Amino acid sequence: MSSENLSDTQMEYEDEKQDSQEKNANLVKGEEVKLKAKYPGLGQKPGGSDFLMKRLQKGQKYFDSGDYNMAKAKMKNKQLPVAGPDKNLVTGDHIPTPQDLPQRRSSLVTSKLAG
Amino acid sequence: MAGAGGGGNDVQWCFSQVKGAIDDDVAEADIISTVEFNHSGELLATGDKGGRVVIFQQELESKNQPQCRGEYNVYSTFQSHEPEFDYLKSLEIEEKINKIRWLPQKNAAQFLLSTNDKTIKLWKISERDKRPEGYNLKEEDGRYRDPTTVTTLRVPVFQPMDLMVEASPRRVFANAHTYHINSISVNSDCETYLSADDLRINLWNLEITDRSFNIVDIKPVNMEELTEVITAAEFHPNQCNTFVYSSSKGTIRLCDMRASALCDQHSKLFEEPEDPSNRSFFSEIISSISDVKFSHSGRYMMTRDYLSVKIWDLNMESRPVETYQVHEYLRSKLCSLYENDCIFDKFECCWNGNDSVVMTGSYNNFFRMFDRGYRQDVTLEASRESSKPRSVLKPRKVCTGGKRKKDEISVDSLDFNKKILHTAWHPQDNIIAVATTNNLYIFQDKL
């Protein structure tokens, strides 16, 4: 649909554009080589499934009712449930109660933007 | 009336206000996640990671200082969303406000939609400046009077009171999204709106919360075949049957709801062909579109991918009509940007009131404006250092080569933790709101 009659200056511009595009491509390929050197096992389909899956699964935490009940039983001997230093660890004592699962409580403090 | 814009031709941007704490220790809840002016520009809303909404109102211009535009001061603040845990799916649902969209004003009250990953809420913000006084059976403090002491009857009257701004949730649109909501968009018919998650787009009626229509579904039967996700969606500003959605593969699909109930078949597909020799591991990631916005005119749309802003003419699907490089110098840093996850940062973009200038954020608290008419661009910085009232912002420059000129900053010195993802432009005037991590800056043109 678009006209392809390019004037001289436009041709020069197109050439320049192509040069800089090649330069850009080389820069990016250089970065790719660096990355592959660091992570040789990086998947064949970089933008593909693994990556998108990770994005779709954001927020996934694992709750085990067996762990929960075990920890609840243990809690009788403790004052307060102690959340482990690594909050992402999902087995055993590290998920004692549902109260700990929403790791963050809602902000009871007014936003500082309104201060 | 908005002038020629931010390209530096005749507009000089000045610091006006900054909101938020000064200290460097940023609580996660204070991270600003969305910024939006209402349709008149009188109100400016922000949402944060803590699920809170703060609304600022522009003060009326004072007669003493006709050269100054009104300042934005806090009008209302409320907790919009709370953190939740979905026990059935073992999913933690963040309270972070992903998007706020204002409804056009129809009566005295203001309405906005705010959404987190799973639930959209319609909030009504209303003013109360009078209250009834003179009840027969109640004292002013609410205690009931002893009926035997009532000897006369009177009619309660409304008396003026200090202005109170109340926010109340009027509708809760829940349980319609399996995946994470990235966009909401109010239709020009003012009756419906869409909400989009990674794989589906739903159409809602603002009055009805227990039902929504699925209008786009790109979930493959076999999830292993998943190759792209929906990244943003928006209704056309005046054609109520038209909307667009962008993907992680750099394509934009325009759909017409008159064509069929399920708009899986696009009416138009906008995609810029890539030179296969340029293909790299990073190609798809940096082509992922993080934001799509129609121009006010409805003739164009703008997309933001990792390195550039593109303007598309809705009449031409083959390639954008304009491309602006936001921070091309990052091409030589893609490896480290992938390692520190910055390559996945989702920058937004916005148009000025007359569609002549577009703006987007970058790193080091820099933000960029591109004047489409004058073909000029400028890089400005949102920082406390340049926040003296009405001080003119100095253009910034990143040097890529070896020789760094005075006042330039080298690529290696850029702070990638200081990112400006969210910006907004007043619908009529040259007033912009720029969000750094936890501060909101307001800049105006020099009058």
UniProtKB/TrEMBL annotation, chain B:
Keywords: Repeat, WD repeat. SUPFAM superfamilies: WD40 repeat-like. One of its GO terms (molecular function) is protein phosphatase regulator activity. One of its GO terms (cellular component) is protein phosphatase type 2A complex. InterPro entries: PP2A_PR55, PP2A_PR55_CS, WD40/YVTN_repeat-like_dom_sf, WD40_repeat_dom_sf, WD40_rpt. The keyword Repeat applies. PROSITE patterns: PR55_1, PR55_2. The keyword RNA-binding does not apply. It comes from the Eukaryota. Belongs to the phosphatase 2A regulatory subunit B family. PP2A consists of a common heterodimeric core enzyme, composed of a 36 kDa catalytic subunit (subunit C) and a 65 kDa constant regulatory subunit (PR65 or subunit A), that associates with a variety of regulatory subunits. This is Serine/threonine-protein phosphatase 2A 55 kDa regulatory subunit B. It comes from Oncorhynchus kisutch (Coho salmon).
